[in-house]
Amino acid sequence: MKNDNIKHAAAAAAFLQDREQARWHDSAIWWVRQKRDAQAKQLPEWEQLRALAQQIKAHTLSRLDEYLEQFQRNAEANGVTVHWAADAAEHNRIVHGILAAAGVKKLVKSKSMLTEECGLNPYLEQRGIAVIDTDLGERIVQLRHEPPSHIVMPAIHLKKEHISELFHKELGTEAGNNDPTYLTHAARANLREHFLSAGAGLTGVNFAIAETGGVVVCTNEGNADLGTALPAIHIASMGLEKIVPRLEHLGVFTRLLARSAIGSPITTYTSHFQQARPGGQMHIVIVDNGRSDILGSDDFYQSLRCIRCGACMNTCPVYRRSTGHSYSYIIPGPIGSTLGPSRDIKKHGSMAFACTTCGSCSNVCPVKINLHEQLILQRKRAFDAGTLKAAKKMGLLAMRFLTRHPSLMDAGGKLMRKVVPIVPQALTQHSAWSRPGRELPQMPAQSFKEMWQARKENKQ
Amino acid sequence: MNVALFIPCFVNELYPHVAMATAELLEGYGLNVDYPLAQSCCGQPLSNNGDSQGACDAARRFTGVFKDYDYIVSPSGSCTAYVKHHYPWYIADDADFQAMQPRVYEIVEFLQDVLKVDRLPKPVYFPHPVSIHQSCHGLRELGHAAPSELMIPYHSRLERILQLVDGVDVRLPERRDECCGFGGTFSVDEPEVSVAMGEDRVAQHEATGAEYIVGADPSCLMHMGGIIRHHGKAIRPLHIVEILTGRGGAA
To answer: Which residues form a coiled coil (chain B) (predicted)?
Structure first.
């Protein structure tokens, strides 16, 4: 579980203490952004695909109730048990209920940000059920007892040396052996035992198709397939916004998803789950957990179009220089900085300020969410909820006043221009502007207004 | 044609020569240029910190000051983008704003789209390598260039207008349009991230071998300028209007 008291500015400053590690993090993730660009460039219809994806999702959200009911009917006709969870607690109770009824003691999970959101792992562990994350990155952060730092690349904040050390301790690999292939094989051998001994497999859902009642899971490691093929019980947990109306719509999203996420034309596995295998069970848990509230918001409903590709994180210059662990909500980066504050503005309001409003996220988003604008709109909610620091609020109210009184603003500006040059540097070097290594601008003798008025008098 | 100068509050105080170059450039094309003295801040810092009441008041005030001019022109892409594209959050229904909105221009846009200039008022010879800084709001909200994220044909207003300058050697930094890290109050809310971004950006501009970083947004140039001076680097930030008026390098 994530410590939701994290304040981005302080956590990011701490991360930046090690500039070398921070530069590596920035470059590693920028490389993924470049791979995305290279793939997107190969499709002449890229921008049309984005527009189409946006429209399909917008349409679906406008009739979400109808499509969800259609999905349920078709899934049930396939013999799948469909459950509805209003919130995280209900989701966890349902999953536990299914496992307890079948006497399951071990659950293998493929990557699911929803179960992170719901805090499923600790819930089940407290009730005596072992949970094994089987996505390699997820497994690494699980063994480290930390949350994922990225929604697609959960362990992107770690170097192979960190993994080697961890696996030596947890899986008994050779000390100091940093070879990625060796380490991956060790994880794979360890995970195989868990796949074989688990009583149930849980997957997330990338897309749920209303027309067929089937769900689609996109992975690169095949772990979702092993986790559903070996144990007899498959539980698929999905947020209620994962619906697409028809199977023919799926191609629009699968073409965008992997290209946007990791710069690959497609994920290695795009697995369709339609019904339980003979003698097995398949359950789908449809989770609301605050999504209906977002759907009802004029400013933020667009965030429900998100297909969790993570491209906004890869392009975000702030994310790349602060890691996902600097954000209080389980989903970091631009999309997390609107979803988190939507969930709880008091807890996650500071995330909305971890943004220069550069707008790159809105441009890479495959479903064209107006991300950078949403972050500014979340700041309105933070201001109204009274979560701004007192000094900042005072500053804004002073600015508000000066904006209405230009002569006072001029007087203030003049004072600044006269005083700053004679203030000893010792007084300014600890300011937030100067502290990290940035000089104040040189102060000109005259403002433009003064120059303009003098010029006008000279002309007359 | 009556053109009003919209000079952002911090440019008025800190970069008066940029404002003056903007005025002279427009006058050089024979325009009647006015600087409405009642103008103050456009309200972007208020909006960016969630103060919708303050932002709304500032938007109404701005509209009252500027609505009667034929054109409103500014040497800041960010402030222009804010007025054009974010005032509707606060005063979408205001008829005066609706009538004014299409007449608000950033200076390079104005020269290219309204005046359609194919020469500078006075010939300019600027025999220096310059690295183009695409500022985010000019780029992604005004469409100053094709953003690297979008798969659309390449274009760049700054590169195009620099074709009117003799001798200039135009270069592009690696990561051609990454943010410099200023972000208004972000620069003091998250100073460490802001400076880390700025240092990376300055280094990328330096790596082109350019003597100047040229942009159309004084705020980004101020931020990078502060980092450049802190480290005593040789590269200099320069606003595009300073080159176009032949004052480049003088200030």
So the answer is: none
